[in-house]
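Fig. S4 source data, part A: sequence.
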Amino acid sequence: MDIILKYFSGLTDKQKEQFAALYDLYADWNSKINVISRKDIENLYERHVLHSLGIAKAHNFRSGTSFLDVGTGGGFPGIPLAIFFPECEFLLLDSIGKKIKVAAEVASALGLSNVRFRHARVEEEKGKFNFVVSRAVMPLADLVKLVRKNISSDHKNATPNGLICLKGGELAHEVLPFKQVAEVTDLSDFFEEEFFETKKVVYVAL
């Protein structure tokens, strides 16, 4: 939890309580349904919660902004972002029912009222959102093709609506087809831990 406070000092007491509760909730659920690798649960705050919040370092969002989290798994990046942006609305989507169950149970325990859940493939989701967020679920070109239909034409933020992905490694080739509309932010600019050396936030205006 200290690592969250290290980089986000302006959290409300409620947000601090919600972030602090994440470890026990995920450790408990992970013992029943494996949504985070067993050896990685110890690194929950750095590799999952803080990583998700990298989107909040790269972009700010106004009240009422809507998000679709594609391939959310156990709730990343959606749940940390929903805690951080309580005035925004989130739909967390995953094709694996037991993962959506964990995410929904965690959100319920936290009292998050700005999050909905759907067990479905992204191809089935017809809703419109300001942003689609995702954590390395598939190559960028494939994801853009699938989610373009879900981007609303109603803009609420300084950043035009689009796709925001958390990705790692060498991305020049992936981003090349979108270089006119893409913006890549290095998370190492914000977070000093070694884990973030190759981690990036990729935004594509759609």
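Fig. S4 source data, part B ends here. The two ends are 35 Å apart (CA to CA).
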